[in-house]
Design a protein that fits this description.
single chain; 692 residues; alpha/beta; five-stranded mixed sheet; 26% helix; 17% strand; globular; binds 1-deoxynojirimycin
Length: 692
């Protein structure tokens, strides 16, 4: 601290990170403001990714809510809790589009779809920053990692990415544009290499796209030491060259490393880096400090902010958890469980009472003491008369020992209902925690089989940081609630869903492959010249022995996995019985400058009220560059009462159909479009229109 204080006085430090003691931070601000030459207050950065003390579901889980309000509220709570500690800048939202569940950081992302990620990115920025960045309880956001990190080869963290400009602009850059339009104060350069030019030295990204095209006037920070890593990438020979590359590319601030502080002065003296570059970077950073109001109120007064973990925070965490859980399957309506007449319930598995694990990755400050686990919540919900028996059965989600399985089987056999709590511990996803095998780790599949052998209906609640391959257990269980890492209030949300106090309403923001070898598999794929159909995709066991290779009649699929995922993007069941019908389009043709309305009836034929996330997909049948077979263009979360039919409408403008074409300009191209409305990316109810 002494060193920091001295450097502060000397004007050598403009921001600090990873300090969360408010008294220390107030003292550092005092030194900066009162004792440094220019009296400029400090930025205080921290990874507040999905909550500070009160933890929301992991961002991938939040994305499953398809609810920008819930996502905004979670960020708002995170901001004000972090602000009590003196933090004024968070390294969130993470908005890398990822189509690779092996990548550990998919947990921090908003999933595979650029439209969904864009809507939620804007919501998160609004949540952190509010309408007024200088207000008490708002903090600067940082959209990261610019850009392309989600494409890390083979899902291995930090691996190379090669993304053609067409794909970069039509997919990966879109959420960043949305964040910039929402007023995000800062961006972070990615660790990754992009087409041979690592992001931290990528002038095309930082200058052409971000400044010239998008007119961004905030600042860009490097990732942790990512400027010095330019030499490790093999782009530069030493730190001086790295500083040169990053500064000229437009990285305004270096996080952690000292390539800038050790080298920029010399680079300027040598005339290699112009002082304008430094002036611009300084102005960009100062602008953020002004917008934060730091010159007017550099100090934190925690007493002016709501208490940590108050009702508002817990409500936000509970709502987010409730809306993020996805009911993947529910055979014979084994869910919801009824508490009526229930005498005993067996809760089995390593994640039923794991307060730390349910918080998920990147929770520096998250407080496991605040967590309410499923076991505790179920106890509370069913009351004293029901015997709740918890058998952990495995020490951790990775354990290979089956020693606890006999007890688990005995308890399951003897209980009225059985719920398995499976998944991944939090450390199995997140930064640098990629997996090549994304099935349930350890002996969990064996545990499922053993419980299955009791003949009882098997309900699995899975908490994980990524989509998992569940092919080896999906037929062994009757129901699956996929809860991601649901955060502080995961337990109550899961209990309410298990017992039907609420209906599941989450939808998958990320495709679930059958096998890891299908990755990348995502709904917005290209059609190819030889698309598969069920008739044409013959599985390995049906291929005649000795058959001759031919080039006639072939299609694009895997012999051992087919061409469909296990669970599609947008999939998620409900306790209600939803039916879509009567799709209509306002006019078969519409003009540039006009709008078209696509609508459908949604009926609830079931007997419980529930939320449904209605989704609109389109397909542009012919473009100057090929277009995906489906693209999400709208979603609405609506509540439908039993017996009720509502009409859901989506309005599209030509701009909503625009994409970057052959010449890399963005435009909507006239032609024929299909449109589907339904409850997942596999919706069948279709209409068409023409843009003229
Ligand atoms: C490295 C991570 O890539 C980034 O997301 C994070 O914000 C920084 N470390 C700071 O902890």
């Amino acid at each position: 601290l002494e060193v920091v204080t001295r450097q502060l006085r000397e004007g050598r430090i403009g921001s600090v990170l990873n300090q969360v003691n408010v008294d220390v931070l107030n003292e550092l601000q005092r030194v900066a403001v009162e004792e440094s030459r220019l009296g400029i207050p400090l930025l205080v950065g921290r990874d507040v990714i999905h909550g500070f003390k009160t933890v929301m579901p992991i961002p991938l889980g939040q994305a499953a809510s398809f609810n920008p309000d819930v996502v905004r509220d979670g960020a708002r709570v995170a901001a004000r809790e972090a602000a009590t500690a003196g933090i004024n800048w968070t390294f969130a939202p993470m908005i890398d589009v990822s189509r690779d569940p092996r990548w550990g950081r998919i947990a921090e992302s908003l999933g595979e779809d650029p439209y969904l990620a864009s809507m939620l990115a804007a919501a998160m920025v609004n949540g952190y920053q509010g309408d007024d960045l200088s207000a008490i309880g708002t903090i600067a956001a940082c959209a990261k990692h610019f850009a392309g990190y989600g494409e890390s080869e083979s899902g291995r963290d930090y691996a190379t990415t090669n993304i053609p400009e067409n794909e970069l602009r039509n997919v990966h850059l879109r959420p960043f544009k949305a964040a910039v339009d929402a007023g995000v104060a800062t961006l972070m350069a990615s660790f990754s290499d992009l087409d041979g030019i690592p992001a931290s030295a990528n002038e095309f990204l930082m200058r052409q796209v971000l400044r010239d095209e998008w007119k961004f006037d905030g600042f860009v920070v490097s990732d942790w030491d990512s400027i010095r890593q330019l030499s490790i990438h093999g782009l530069t020979a030493n730190d001086r060259e790295s500083a040169y590359e990053a500064a000229t590319a437009g990285v305004d601030m270096e996080m952690h490393g000292n390539a800038y502080s050790n080298n920029l002065e010399q680079l300027i003296t040598d005339g290699r880096v112009s002082i304008d570059i430094v002036d611009t970077a300084v102005a960009n950073i100062l602008r953020a400090k002004f917008r934060l109001g730091l010159f007017d109120h550099p100090y934190t007064h925690p007493e002016k902010l709501p208490a940590i973990g108050d009702d508002d925070a817990f409500d936000a965490a509970r709502q987010a958890a409730l809306q993020s859980v996805v009911l993947l399957k529910n055979d014979r309506q084994v869910l919801p469980l009824s508490a009526d007449g229930l005498e005993s319930v067996a809760l089995i598995g390593p994640l039923g009472d794991a307060p730390y694990e349910q918080l998920g990755t990147w929770i520096f400050d998250g407080d496991p003491e605040l967590s309410i686990t499923p076991m505790h919540a179920i106890h509370d919900l069913v009351g004293r008369d029901v015997d709740v028996r918890y058998v952990r059965a495995m020490e951790t989600s990775r354990s290979h020992s089956v020693d606890g399985f006999d007890e688990a089987v005995a308890v399951a056999r003897d209980s009225d209902a059985v719920v398995l709590f499976l998944g991944e511990e939090s450390i199995l996803s997140g930064e640098a925690h990629s997996r090549a095998d994304i099935s349930l780790p350890g002996a969990q599949a064996e545990l499922v089989k053993r419980i299955r052998s009791t003949g009882r209906p098997v309900i699995a609640v899975i908490q994980a940081g990524r989509p998992l391959t569940l092919s080896n257990i999906v037929d062994e269980v009757d129901a699956i609630l996929f809860a991601w890492h649901p955060g502080t209030m995961g337990g109550p949300a899961i209990a309410d869903l298990l017992f039907g106090l609420e209906s599941p309403s989450g939808k998958l923001p990320s495709t679930f492959p059958r096998m890891v070898g299908q990755v990348p598999i995502y709904y917005a794929q290209g059609n190819t010249g030889k698309p598969a159909t069920p008739e044409k995709a013959m599985l390995i066991d049906d291929i005649p022995v000795g058959a001759q290779q031919t080039s006639v009649g072939n299609v694009s699929y895997h012999l051992d996995a087919g061409f469909t995922p296990l669970f599609a993007f947008g999939h998620g069941l409900s306790y209600a019985d939803f039916r879509y019908d009567q799709i209509a389009v306002s006019s078969a043709e519409f003009e540039l400058g006009g709008t078209v309305t696509i609508s459908a009836d949604l009926s609830n034929d079931g007997d419980v009220a529930a939320d449904e996330v209605v989704q609109l997909y389109i397909r542009d049948l012919a473009g100057s560059v090929t277009r995906p077979i489906r693209e999400l263009k709208g979603f609405q979360r609506v509540r439908v009462e039993p017996g009720q039919t509502i009409r859901v409408e989506f309005q599209l403008e030509a701009d909503d159909l625009a994409f970057y074409g052959r010449d890399m300009t963005r435009a909507a191209e006239p032609g024929q479009f299909h449109a589907w409305i339904g409850g997942s990316s596999e919706a069948q109810l279709r209409t068409s229109f023409r843009l003229v």
